[in-house]
Every structure is written in C-alpha cells, then in structure tokens.
Amino acid sequence: MSLFLQQLAPELEAAGAKALLDLYVDEPMGDQPSKDALRAMTDIAEHASSAAPRRRFTRSRDPLMGVEVDLHDRVQAGHFALLAHRVINAEAWCGDRQVFGTVESPTRVWVDLPEAVIESLLARGRKAGAELRSRSEG
Fold this sequence. Notes:
Layout: H1 2-14, E1 18-22, H2 32-51, E2 67-69, H3 74-83, E3 89-94, E4 97-102, E5 110-111, H4 115-128
Antiparallel strand pairs: 1-2, 1-3, 3-4, 4-5
C-alpha cells in the first residue's frame, strides 16, 4: 500500500488537497521506517499544537487527531505514504469535498479523483511493485 500512496501523495498535492492523519494505531508497526514516520509526525503535531492551539482542521482538542500533512514537503509526503493505511484514520479534502480516505486498512483506500488520474495512479503503482485493483476491475 505504501508504494501506491507514494504515487498518490503528489496527485493530492497537485489537486490542492489537505491531507489529514489521526496519529493513533491499533496494531504495532513492525518496520522501523513506519515507526520513525509516526514519531516524526507526532513531533510535528505536538509542535504545531503548542505553537497554534486552535488549528482549523482539528476535530478535537487532541493534537494527534486531524494532523495536517504538508504534501509539498517530500519528507512529510513520505510519512503520509508510510502511515495513511496504518493509522486509525487518514483523509484528504479539496475544499469541502473528500477525495481520499482509509481507516487502518492495509488493502483498501478510497480515492475520488478524475478517472484519468486514477488510471495513471494504478499504472504507476503497479510499475512501482504494488499489487492493485480498482473497484471497477472487480
């Protein structure tokens, strides 16, 4: 899934989407890069919370909920790719329209982008080594 999400992050950025992560996991992460990404995003969230206690997209007072990922930043985009399918919730919005979502799923994400973008994402993800299929593919 991370291979697909690596391809998705730049598309979300190009669409002007705001990507949000709820930085909690129910299952322990076994690989060190994901653990490091979670720690880094937690540090970013805690720093942002202390600097600006009333963030626009926060759904609660919990600084680890609704953490905005800066998709322009390659490091944070990489964290998004490692974490979105592992945390309790991840989503992206273009204005008031949700364009991406997943809830702690190593196999399922929901993407609402133009069909040509989806086809390109699937092709690039497969080329990168991800095993993918769209709902329309059965």
